[in-house]
Amino acid sequence: MSVTSEASRESPAGSGGPLTGKVALVTGASRGIGAAIARRLAREGAAVAITYHSSPGRADEVVAAITSEGGRAVALGADSGDAEAVRATVTDTVEVFGRLDILVNNAGGAHLAPIGEMTVDDFDREVAVNVRSAWVATQEALRHMGDGGRIISVGSVFAERMPIPNGTTYSLTKAAISGFTRALARELGPRAITVNAIQPGPIATDGNPNEGDHADLMIALTPAGRFGSPDEVTGLIVYLAGSESGYVTGATINIDGGYTV
């Protein structure tokens, strides 16, 4: 288990919040939307494990931000394209915190290129990171998750509307997340485990800046007339992770400033 740091086992940030006593695993959460999700879940009372691949320093910063507010957090190194590494992060989370209640499948990546220039290895890597990692993490999580658990996957509005060329494989993988969500919700209904996906639109992160030619195109296609912020995504995640969303399952919810209307 590659662990960068862990908070003390004192009362978590947001003690008394709606997620107090819960344990969450957020994959690919060293930066961007994933980092914002992890910090918000911790503020609402959850102990949080995050995974990272190439940015241990960024992962440490997320853990430090959580622990500075009195929360509990751990960072686990794993390549999301490695099925066994993904599986190990789930078991490591349970080893550290004793349980798992919430899984957020956030890890992903994009390889934008003309289909004629992509190799099979390129395709396999993108599918492994964006789709197989969610499948493996979910399969392993269900070995530990009790009835009433929560599985949330982060897709993309590009599953529905790809405004630029060269994104065929990325769009394919994000559409797969939506189908996976619907089918799994039916399978897990008897256990009261809800399964939902969110599809962010243009969200400003260091990997998706809100300035430049691409940003101008996305803003022009978005009725809100701007990029969203990662913090504008986290409220929906908290709702789906909490007890009030028990009748919401199999849903794919766009949070996109109207991009898909």
What does this 3D model show about the protein?
Helix 4 links the parallel strand 5 and strand 6. This protein has an eight-stranded mixed beta sheet, sandwiched between helices. The chain contains seven helices and eight strands. Helix 1 packs parallel to helix 2, helix 3 packs parallel to helix 4 (120-141) and helix 4 runs parallel beside helix 5 (168-188). It has 261 residues and is an alpha/beta fold. The chain has helices at 32-43, 56-68, 83-97, 120-141, 168-188, 213-220, 231-241; strands at residues 3-6, 23-26, 47-52, 73-77, 102-105, 150-154, 194-200, 252-255. The protein has one domain (3-200, 233-255): NAD(P)-binding Rossmann-like Domain (Rossmann fold). The longest helix is centred in the middle third of the chain and has 22 residues, at 120-141. Residues 7-12 have low confidence and may be disordered. Helices cover 39% and strands 15% of the residues.
Question: Could you give the topology of this structure?
Answer:
Layout: E1 3-6, E2 23-26, H1 32-43, E3 47-52, H2 56-68, E4 73-77, H3 83-97, E5 102-105, H4 120-141, E6 150-154, H5 168-188, E7 194-200, H6 213-220, H7 231-241, E8 252-255
Parallel strand pairs: 2-3, 2-5, 3-4, 5-6, 6-7, 7-8
Antiparallel strand pairs: 1-4
